[in-house]
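Researcher: Here's a chain I'd like modeled. Treat it as a single chain, no partners, no ligands.
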Amino acid sequence: MRASRALRPSYRQAFGLSPGQKLVVVSSTWGPESLLGAAPGLLLRLAEQLPFDEFRILLAPHPNIVAGHSSWQFGEYTAAARRAGVTIPKDVDAWRTAIIAADIVVGDHGSVPFYSAALGIPLILATAPVESVDPRSPIAKLLDTAPRIDIRGDLATQIRDVIIDHDPDRYSPITTFTTSEPDASPANLRSLMYRTMKFPEPAEPAELSALPMPSQPLHAPHSYLAVVRSGRNRTASIIRYPAERLRSGYETPRGTYIVVGTTEPRRRWMQLADAVVGDPSSQTTAWIAETLAALPGSMLAAAPDEAGVWYLGDRTGTIVTATGDACHLPLVTPLACHHLAQSRPLSEFAGEWEIDCADRILVVTVRTVGHGSFASAQPDL
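Model: Modeled as a single isolated chain. Structure tokens:
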């Protein structure tokens, strides 16, 4: 990991992180005193409270958790968190690149939080059972020193504060005991192995290798709540949370819209959806009409075509397109919902919009491409 630190920008890019977006790594060792054992609801609460355009979350579970409970049971246990956008890599070693790319680690008394502190990554502890570790160990000293998260408090504020207030050298008096010979493990281990085998050691130096790139980007929720605030001259701000937040009891402010993706939707979400978002297709406009006919409670349906242009249609048969940076175009859907909720026709939505999302100004262009009568076909029962 020390050899890979210079590749942090590359790892973040491979994870699909936008500039300024924060990666939260949640690390749990195994056993009843671990993060998942002692605070089983924290992972989902983090996903429900952290705006996902500002934060992405990755879980780094100890392999013994799956080994002890089975992959099926672990998958059921984490299903809601996955729907809320939490990434749980299949590769048990993916935590290494995640730690390097991370902006903060939420952990327990396992080794991963200690490694992250040694790398200068901000750390906050969900559980710190000092009685479970040797009181003379460096990990015990870290448990006594690192801040604790208030599980029932405002998690987003706590996460932001730890990131802002962090000093990379804060834990160096403790983490200096990680190893007495940093970066020397390849040479030391190779020498030991060859001495054990009683073979002559190769003449070329033992090299450190950087970690491989992440194989997949981080997840984002397919269904979400969007809080939209419109400004003057086609400007707006949008904050998005996972749709799982609907189950949490958190207040839903005025101007919040439910956008449901067609991947693993919950039935109640579809019944409540203000908008439905589909997958890329060559038949996008037909899909919009058929979807709105099947979901009479939705005001809008949207999906990209095969070229990445977004199409949005309402119940009058009006179709508009949105173009711009591909990763920003999904934000047009809740913005169009807000426009329709103010009793404005979708045709007047056309123009250039500036959207403030996670402290970034995003520009998209909307054009009206068609009008017509809404398809009145009823869904098959």
